[in-house]
């Protein structure tokens, strides 16, 4: 009689323990994924701010002086795109380019598909008059992120 109760008690303890372990593993995975996503976004924002600082507005025309070497962008699976205020592409460097349309209201965009890509759009503010002169969009392949 006690043997049957002992097995039921053991089984219930195992079920509770396995459930707690599963919930903990899921929570760790979610926290790790969010942390990795935030790190990627912060890195893209830093690159975008550097690229935005190199863009100048002269004679009603946005000129881009890039300090980024295209080979470095290609190696890191990144790309830079500069747009005017109407969303027209002015210049581009790198190969991992986001093909989605420019959405200035949406800072972070993710493109799914064969090669998943994350992009961050940064406004370019003129140093003379503090007006919006264009946008820079930094994109990076998420293949390494997915592998991790």
Automatic annotation (TrEMBL):
One Pfam annotation reads: ArlS_N
Keyword terms = Kinase, Transferase
Q: Is Kinase among the key words of this record?
A: yes
The source's superkingdom equals Bacteria
The ArlS sensor domain sits at 35-148
The GO molecular function terms of this record are: kinase activity
Name-wise, this protein is Sensor histidine kinase
